[in-house]
Amino acid sequence: xxxxxxxxxxxxxxxxxxxxxxxxxxxxxxxxxxxxxxxxxxxxxxxxxxxxxxxxxxxxxxxxxxxxxxxxxxxxxxxxxxxxxxxxxxxxxxxxxxxxxxxxxxxxxxxxxxxxxxxxxxxxxxxxxxxxxxxxxxxx
Length: 140
Prior knowledge:
Layout: H1 5-20, H2 25-31, E1 34-40, E2 48-52, H3 62-74, E3 88-94, H4 103-111, H5 116-138
Parallel strand pairs: 1-3
Antiparallel strand pairs: 2-3
């Protein structure tokens, strides 16, 4: 099981503390966003699913479950909504999971080699993610 949430949250806290000590750090901290990219098996290959905060289903993704649980425990750590968790942006990139894959078959699919066509779709999704990050930078 992926339990990356506590480590990711600690790294986020450390980074926020560091930028908070720099000139203009308080303002920078308010605008800070943590963007978590992950595979999204229910989405078609290369399609994006974007969620803010801790609301919305992790759809069985253990890494996202761990991140959300850690964020809920950690409380407000920055972002534009001081009372909330809107600073967390979850971006799922579709991997186009074939039906009827379960257990080890699913693990093999997720961790297996992509075909050239699959890689091309994921590479195209990269540009969409980069556009999203630019949009986030322009907020506030």
